[in-house]
Specification:
Order of helices and strands: HHHHHEEEHHEHH
Number of domains: 1
Number of strands: 4
Radius of gyration: 17 Å
Distance between the termini: 44 Å
Strand content: under 5%
Structural class: mainly alpha
Helix content: 55-70%
Largest sheet: 2 strands, antiparallel
Number of helices: 9
Strand order of the largest sheet: 1-4
Length: 221
């Protein structure tokens, strides 16, 4: 093993990336062996694991960072609660048992997932040379692409289900608009958004969703 690689895997970033790769390699092997259903029961723990790794690798983490991470999480949870209560935000849907403990019929971890995703794309887009509103718009679009891969997996494994036979376009528009507003705030009030792990986390998760889609013969639309 090259000396530079040995040094890297001893760093915070190296340890985190190694852990992420190992966890998802185990997941990939489990899926290929036909144990996807059992594996997805661990999703709540995986969400907490992702959040812990993100915070562990947040270069600018301080009280302000934690406050805004929490604000985004609470706001995301609130939008989901409003969504299932009214059907006016994302469309008519309801949560299943796949994401763990619920409060007011919304899994508590859904807010954590919003915060992880928003801060991930904020880290990825932080050096884009463009106007703030456009940078936030592009980062929000990344979140929508992520959601397109997530939706069939979520429906298959009882994370949530839609009243309609297909995921409504309203869902993706709402995801983009809410993420855009959150990103505008995060980009303005969290100066140091650097996070080494952010792109790797989103890419690895997206590839894992794609594997589940292909092996489960799921439809994207």
């Amino acid at each position: 093993m090259p000396a530079s690689l040995k040094l890297f895997i001893r760093t915070r970033a190296g340890i985190s990336l190694l852990l992420l790769i190992v966890v998802y390699l185990v997941g990939i092997i489990s899926v290929l062996m036909g144990h996807a259903q059992q594996l997805m029961l661990l999703t709540p723990f995986n969400l907490l694991f992702a959040a812990a790794l993100m915070l562990f690798n947040a270069k600018g983490i301080n009280l302000n960072y934690i406050i805004w991470f929490s604000v985004v999480g609470v706001a995301g949870y609130g939008m989901e609660w409003l969504g299932i209560e009214t059907g006016l935000v994302f469309g008519s849907y309801s949560y299943g048992a796949g994401l763990g403990i619920k409060l007011f019929d919304v899994p508590l971890l859904i807010g954590v997932n919003w915060a992880v995703l928003v801060f991930s794309v904020a880290a990825i887009s932080r050096n884009w040379k463009t106007k703030p509103w456009l940078r936030a718009a592009g980062a929000a679009a990344l979140m929508v692409l992520y959601d397109i891969l997530l939706e069939p997996v979520a429906i298959r494994f009882d994370f949530w289900s839609w009243e309609a036979t297909q995921v409504p376009l309203q869902n993706y528009l709402a995801w983009w608009a809410i993420a855009w507003l959150m990103l505008l705030a995060v980009n303005k009030f969290v100066p140091n958004r650097e996070n080494f792990l952010a792109p790797y986390l989103l890419i690895i998760q997206s590839l894992f969703f794609l594997l589940l889609i292909l092996t489960g013969n799921l439809s994207l639309f």
